[in-house]
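Troubleshooting: if your tokenizer reports a length mismatch, compare your output against this known-good record of 331 residues.
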Amino acid sequence: MSIERRTLGTQSPLEVSTMGLGCMGMSEFYGTGDEPDAIATIDRALDLGVTFLDTADMYGPFTNEQLVGKAIARRRDEVQLATKFGNERLPDGTMVGINGRPEYVRRAADASLQRLGVDHIDLYYQHRVDKTVPIEDTVGAMAELVQAGKVRHLGLSEASAENIRRAHAVHPITALQTEYSLFTRDLEDEILPTIRELRIGLVPYSPLGRGMLTGAITSPSSLDDGDARRSGYFPRFVGDALDANLSLVAKVRELAETKGCAPGQLALAWVLAQGDDVVPIPGTKRVRYLEENIAAADVTLTTQDLAALEAAVPKGAVAGERYGDMSSIDD
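Known-good structure output:
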């Protein structure tokens, strides 16, 4: 079992593994974390060639970067390390707000470098666009980090097409990270054509619909009590919306059985099939799910398979918003 490579961006290209590993859930949001299991998962990912690791300062807060830094300490040269700034939190977890001020960019980068225990970040994203600060100012400060050698490549997350263009005019943007899966396809209307025109790579987070497309979630009780997906913060997992969405998952499961793979593998294969400029970062904190996800790269989809999946889960068919509060999403 191993995985191939893809390149994000062209003006400032970054070669990464065809699939990355989202590390957020190892520390927060998706139930209780277990540091030894998380470190073992990261170690196994690197062994299998999954070298593109994704974290952010807000995860924990702060503790996920420390965890990732600990896990890669002896293998830094193998890793393409991505982290993010912009969702400002206090140490007790309180959300302060979105911060894109240049002075904060510099301070956040230095703090991330220290927590990660590295001398540079391979891909540094603005986690959310600060609508009170011109994006040119934020990206200008990020570009200074590149000039200083603290950051190698720049990225944006959940940015609008207009702000992607404005940012890219200041400094080449290597990748856009945004939610993208069979369950979330709104970026296909304007954002995907824009980044393809500018030749910016796409890094889909939650490519398994926050785990729903794996088929492992059958009711709210499938999730731990402390799992944020049980709250109104994720409307797709609540009430009638959950029932409607699980009926879509059932159709994916039927198609997966025909292909001889797991439903999550089929859903990931669909994302991978959207282009060689697409590098999903499914998150997990367990080795067995990591290995299952990696095997999705070996699932080949025909034109008929793709058509069947899109018929099973039509664009826009999913019930509920991505988040209970969509105000932080740039539009």
